[in-house]
Hints:
Immunoglobulin-like, 5-stranded antiparallel beta sheet, 4-stranded antiparallel beta sheet, 16 strands
Amino acid sequence: MxxxxxxxSKVRAFAIPAGVSSGGQAxxxxxxxxxxxxxxxxxxxHQVYVNNRFAGVTVEPAxxxxxxxxxxxxxxxxxxxxxxxxxxxxxxxxxxxxxSKQIQAGRVKIEFPRTDNLPVNGNIxxxxxxxxxxxxxIKIWPGFADKGGFGLSSxxxxxxxxxGSAAIGFGKGNFGFGWFGFDSDMLCWQxxxxxxxxxxxxxxxxxxxxxxxQEVVGTGQITIIPPAKPAERLKIESxxxxxxxxxxxxx
Length: 251
C-alpha cells in the first residue's frame, strides 16, 4: 500500500467566498476551499481527493493545508479525504485504489473501451428503462485521431494490412482494452443526479448506414442510494468546551 489514512485526523474544509457582505456573510462562493488536517506522518507528502477525484498534493512533508477546487452544487454533500503518500508516488492518482471506500454520489457512470471494432462513423445512444436519454446520437469517433486500422493513419508505416501510427500507443491509454501492443481510450457517460431507487441503463450502437445493434445492451439493475442533501443555513448556536458539546441550529 502506497497511501495511508490511519494517523490523519481533524480534516476540516472552509469554503472561500468570492465576496463578503457588510454583515460578514459570504454572498457568493468562489469554487475553492481551504482544507486543513492533522497528520502523524512527518516524512511523507499528502494527497487530497474530492469525491474520489485527485485534487492535489502537498509540496513538503510539513504542509498541513491546501486550497482545492470544489463543486458549487448544493444538491449533494462532497467527500473530502486526505491521504499520506510516499514522496516517490506523490503525483500518482490512486482514485481506483480508494474508490471502494467511497459513498455513492447518486449518479451512474458507464464506461467501455472505444476499440477498433466500433464503426468509424457510428453513433451511440444511452437508454434508461427503454427511453433514450440523449436527444441525438453521440459520435463514437469524432475524428480519425487515435484510431488504428487499414487506411486510418499513415499508409505503409505499420504492419501489412494495418495502419497504427495514429492509434493510442502502449502505456498511453487504458491497458488491456486495445489490440496487442496498443492501448485504448474509454467512452464515458455520466447520468444526472438520481433519486433513490433501482435503475437499468442500456446502450445501442448505430453505424453510418443505419444498422443498429440487435438489441439494447443493458447494465442490469443498479440500486442508487444518494448521499444526504447538506443542511442549509446551518449555524453554531453554542459550544461547551469543558464538556465537548456542540449545539447546531438550522434556519
